[in-house]
């Protein structure tokens, strides 16, 4: 009886695995200089490694490479339509562009990074893909090349949580949760980077370093729960500025 049950379960797993394999297949598309798909025997400039569903629609993660094998871009598809994270990379592998697609449209804030890993431009889209605005001056005191007329930028005031660090610590006590997946380590930390816009909104939080992926997720969640910050000031005026913030997790 037990032996029959075992073989029935095994057969079910194999059938299910086979069905998944039939629903999607790995495909490589070779593209010419105009982005038109060509045969591999023809001259091509880039190629994409992707998955196709049974209707031959692109699904899941797509990786685009240069002819020499260097990774250029990654993006995701859902039923043949771009959906989710988009990233483009510099020659050294560092991030160049970071954005998001929704139902085939560019949405939210798209960030452009220089080779010093600093944001040089932000482009904002609404949920329908309409361009709302472009912000060309994203200042960072961590970037030695950030200057105006050759003079190193020094903020008069840095971005700040409303009410200062005491209120920030109160915000953490109210909202921060220690992820179960990281509790076995007894503690940890995440260093986040984000942009405080001139109007105080927080955009594009990401981890610079983290001792566990779950801490990254929780840190970003708590940052996104915060009210509008007090922006940095330059020449008496609020400006868009990046900020780094360390969050320490301790088991109680």
Automatic annotation (TrEMBL):
UniProt-listed SUPFAM superfamilies: Histone H3 K4-specific methyltransferase SET7/9 N-terminal domain (SSF82185), TolA/TonB C-terminal domain (SSF74653)
InterPro entries for the chain: TonB-dependent_transducer, TonB_C
GO molecular function: energy transducer activity
A UniProt-annotated Pfam family: TonB_C
Domain TonB C-terminal: 175-250
Cited PANTHER family: PROTEIN TONB, PROTEIN TONB-RELATED
Protein name, entry field: TonB C-terminal domain-containing protein
Protein source organism: Roseivirga misakiensis
